[in-house]
Amino acid sequence: MAPNQFSRRRFIGRTAAGAGLILGGGRVLTACGDDEAAAPTTTAAPATTAAPTTTAAPTTTAAPALTEANFQLSWFDSVQFGGSYIAHQRGYYERFGLDVSLVPGGPGVSPDAAVAADQALVGISAANFTGQSVADGAPFKIVGVAMQKNPFVIASLSDNPINEPKDLEGTKLGMAFNNQLDLELLSELNGVDISKIEVITSDYDPAPLVNGEVDSLLCWLTDLPVAMTVQGIDNTTMLFADFGYAVHSQTLICTEDSLANKRDQVIGLLKGDILGWQEYRTDTDAAAQLTVDLFPDAGFDLEAQKLQASEQLKIMFSADTDEHGFLWFTDESVQDNIRTLAALGVDVTADLWDRSLLEEIYADGPVLS
């Protein structure tokens, strides 16, 4: 588990305490998976006894059994995964023969490890984590990219905004210590003298910015800025992705073995998820309401979930997804990622990405129905 993940999890944990349930195909499991509630079984209707004639009576045919599959999420439950919640609620995974359990992340949870151990068919990760795993010998492929832009931002107060990287010079920046390489890369890409930035190690919380201890914070677009906006604090965000920082986030990964031997299952999961995210895009407020309803003990603030759901549209859909379909990634974006990851000390090749499943899924156009 990367330290910056832990910092963000601490923040989410305070705002979503108690979100310990995960969804399964008709069943609810505890987050650790120790106490599985009994799942309803599908029982075939008995065949009608043949009448004493030469013609056999018709038999009742059972519906095809669903294949169980775990989908390992990268984070605690929140509207960040709203499209997947919709897919589960609407039965979109079942449409493709799958009984999918959505398994939340949390402290110490590694989606890469879960997928590698065959505890999940598909997991949500990020190109830098998966790239490092592959460098260490893991047999992964990135088969879809949900976030078209990396969610890292510099957040500042609107009356003293940071609009571009150069604005960081001469200011105090609050961030986690382990984000130093990310800041160095952003600075190098944009001609910023990093020695002129005073870095203050801070908790993942908007308080240091609001209280004037720092001039800006390094965070996710959908976290601290949303918390401030909901509290009526005007803030400005500067996306790293708009200034040359290219790292695919919320990537869908599977193993090479699953691509070869469970290809239909992986495609089915992707199709179900795509249908959910297509619906999410049309009504983000409904996705937020569903999230709050699914996890009544999580303490979610509906307005915060609505704002987060809306903000996510900025980074999860693009001209490329409009042209090719949700989860799409281009050869150009792959090359941009390779260069960025190399600068971060993670060496990968284009073989890490496999677009063949998406090409099959979208053979008839960029929208599934």
Question: What would the principal axes of the Cα set say about the shape?
Answer: globular
Order of helices and strands: HEEEHHEHEHEEEHEHEHEEHHHHHHH
The radius of gyration is: 22 Å
Give the CATH topology of the largest domain. D-Maltodextrin-Binding Protein, domain 2
- Given helix and strand content, the structural type is alpha/beta
CATH C-level class of the largest domain is Alpha Beta
- At CATH's second level, what is the architecture of the largest domain? 3-Layer(aba) Sandwich
At the fourth level of CATH, the homologous superfamily of the largest domain is Periplasmic binding protein-like II
Unreliable stretches covering 5 or more consecutive residues: 1-55
Q: Can you summarize the main beta sheet?
A: 5 strands, mixed
Query: Major sheet: order of its strands?
Result: 4-3-5-12-6
Number of H/I helices: 15
- Give the number of domains: 2
